[in-house]
Q: What sequence folds into this?
């Protein structure tokens, strides 16, 4: 192309179709988008639609379903196990998210002080988030063992309890146990992201506030918190979304037991669809998660909008 | 940069109480499960099932028996191999696709680029736990069932949205003038991408790659649903489904397996922790 342009001084001819394909932005854009579009369409958009369709059929494993309208949903409406899973999912998400936020923010503020070995500390704090969830969940499974739990042993040695705690055998104990494991895993992500946010707050704001005689709480309330709000909105949306749709932690520790006490909607849909073979019903349970996810996405959207507004639209 | 700017005025005892003690407690809780995995994997069986012989926080007469058993009497090495191959290929495919998409959205600014950027962001929010049922039908239909390709081709849907988003940030930070000069000199878009933009975006490529790799290693529900032959499984799935003999859990080997399965990710991450953190913050800042 370069040599064609140099030397010849003739009036440029109408560009050929091929060169237009190579230079026209819209066409080029389409070519560049092709691999991504193919992946996302074949393995994301299409299955998403298929899932909604499946939820309105009576498909089973090895058998094409026929359209049954909202029958699966009316059936689920009368199913106490489904409602128990909805309750568990909401409890799991709400409690874990609140603690992840509180501990994560606290840890971020602690890590934002002048500390020796700061980089190293930051690295090890992130470990629970990096290690595959199932593998760390197995460690919790072992620590929650009814007979050989190190937690029970320690509490007994300290004289706080006399018999082993039945961590995973009792419904409420099991719920708190999996929630704890989830918080353990999620805190590092929240903490490290908020720490990065804290580091973008200009120190001059704190200096000015100090001169004005603000105390630590006032500085947090009127400087740190407003500056962090957009990041908090994004991080917490992700955190809520991933907690709500969690599968692996529950599957590794309790598989929904004891007596469905820790089934989340995701684990219940796996059990019904893949283990039980009722694809339509399982798909209906997954589809029932969509309204909740949409709510979380809306929150995130408004969080981002607000950030744009704070930074000035031109930054985009 | 400190939290208050007046940090250094705090007295040492006060710092200990308000910073070091809480920090130590949190770090202890965050790291304890790893210590416990490690200690379990080298403990002789009699110490595992009787906590009163020796202090369970310590180990007397450590043994490599569990690790030996794990490596040579189970298909653990082939599970590691599967996981590694799947993660590497899926990461590679995703990065290629993401680079092209991110470049097109940021620099070509074709019609609807903004809109498509938004759609890719939304794709990140569609969780695997609502896709695995229809995907399992699709995987069967495409003839990918019980092959590594089922995972290699489905993982990019999780990896591409985040990588694209992250790379968009990197591409935006590369001065546009460099590209303009090249365009005037007659370079094609492809030449600009491979010769100018990519070399400058190496840190971004590394962080996207690490993120994608760790995510693949962590993926569970697709691997659980799409692979049924025990030897073809990935580490997380194999560990929890193949390690139970009736009611007896081989805790030592199970913990060794969990620990060793974490090692590749931990190594990758230790080398690139700074890229990783800047990647996460970069993505949040976008």
A:
């Amino acid at each position: 192309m370069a040599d064609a342009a140099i030397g010849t001084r003739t009036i440029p001819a109408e560009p050929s179709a091929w060169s237009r394909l190579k230079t026209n932005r819209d066409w080029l854009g389409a070519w560049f988008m092709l691999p991504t579009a193919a992946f996302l369409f074949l393995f994301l958009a299409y299955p998403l639609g298929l899932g909604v369709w499946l939820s309105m059929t009576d498909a089973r494993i090895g058998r094409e379903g026929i359209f049954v309208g909202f029958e699966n949903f009316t059936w689920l409406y009368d199913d106490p196990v489904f409602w128990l899973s909805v309750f568990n999912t909401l409890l799991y998400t709400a409690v874990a998210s609140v603690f992840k936020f509180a501990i994560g923010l606290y840890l971020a503020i602690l890590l934002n002080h002048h500390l020796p070995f700061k980089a190293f500390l930051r690295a090890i704090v992130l470990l629970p988030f990096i290690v595959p969830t199932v593998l760390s969940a197995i460690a919790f499974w072992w620590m929650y063992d009814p007979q050989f739990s190190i937690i029970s042993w320690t509490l007994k040695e300290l004289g706080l309890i006399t018999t082993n705690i039945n961590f995973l055998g009792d419904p409420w104990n099991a719920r708190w146990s999996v929630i704890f494991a989830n918080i353990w895993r999620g805190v590092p992500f929240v903490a490290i992201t908020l720490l990065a946010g804290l580091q973008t707050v200009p120190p001059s704001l704190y200096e000015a506030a100090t001169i004005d005689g603000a105390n630590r709480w006032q500085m947090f309330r009127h400087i740190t918190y407003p500056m962090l709000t957009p990041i908090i909105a994004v991080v917490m949306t992700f955190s809520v979304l991933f907690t709500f749709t969690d599968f692996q932690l529950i599957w590794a520790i309790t598989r929904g037991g004891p007596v469905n006490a820790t089934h989340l909607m995701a684990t219940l849909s796996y059990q019904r669809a893949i283990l039980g073979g009722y694809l339509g019903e399982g798909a209906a349970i997954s589809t029932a998660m969509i309204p909740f996810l949409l709510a979380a996405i809306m929150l995130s959207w408004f969080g981002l909008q607000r950030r744009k507004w704070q930074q000035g639209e031109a930054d985009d | 940069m400190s939290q208050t700017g007046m940090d250094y005025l705090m007295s040492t005892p006060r710092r200990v109480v308000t910073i070091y003690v809480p920090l130590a407690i949190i770090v202890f809780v965050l790291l304890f499960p790893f210590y416990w995995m490690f200690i379990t994997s080298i403990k002789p069986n009699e110490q595992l099932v009787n906590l009163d012989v020796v202090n369970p926080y310590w180990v007397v007469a450590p043994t490599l028996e569990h690790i030996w058993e794990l490596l040579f009497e189970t298909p653990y090495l082939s599970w590691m191999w599967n996981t590694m191959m799947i993660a590497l290929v899926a990461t590679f495919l995703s990065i290629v696709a993401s680079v092209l998409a991110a470049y097109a959205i940021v620099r070509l600014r074709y019609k609807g680029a903004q809109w498509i950027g938004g759609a890719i962001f939304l794709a990140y929010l569609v969780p695997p736990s609502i896709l695995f049922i229809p995907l399992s039908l699709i995987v069967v239909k495409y003839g990918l069932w019980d092959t590594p390709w089922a995972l290699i081709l489905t993982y990019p849907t999780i990896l591409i949205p985040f990588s694209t988003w992250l790379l968009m940030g990197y591409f935006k930070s590369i001065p546009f003038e460099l590209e303009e000069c090249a365009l005037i000199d007659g370079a094609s878009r492809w030449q600009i991408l491979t010769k100018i933009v990519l070399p400058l975006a190496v840190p971004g490529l590394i962080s996207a790659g690490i993120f994608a790799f760790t995510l693949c290693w962590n993926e569970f529900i697709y691997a659980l649903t799409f692979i049924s032959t025990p030897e073809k499984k990935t580490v997380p799935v194999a560990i929890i489904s193949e390690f139970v003999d009736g009611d007896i859990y081989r805790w030592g080997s199970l913990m060794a397996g969990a620990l060793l399965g974490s090692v590749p990710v931990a190594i990758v991450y230790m080398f690139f922790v700074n890229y990783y953190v800047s990647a996460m913050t970069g993505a949040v800042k976008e």
Q: What stands out?
A: Chain A has a mean pLDDT of 86. The CA atoms of residues 234 and 300 of chain A lie 6 Å apart.
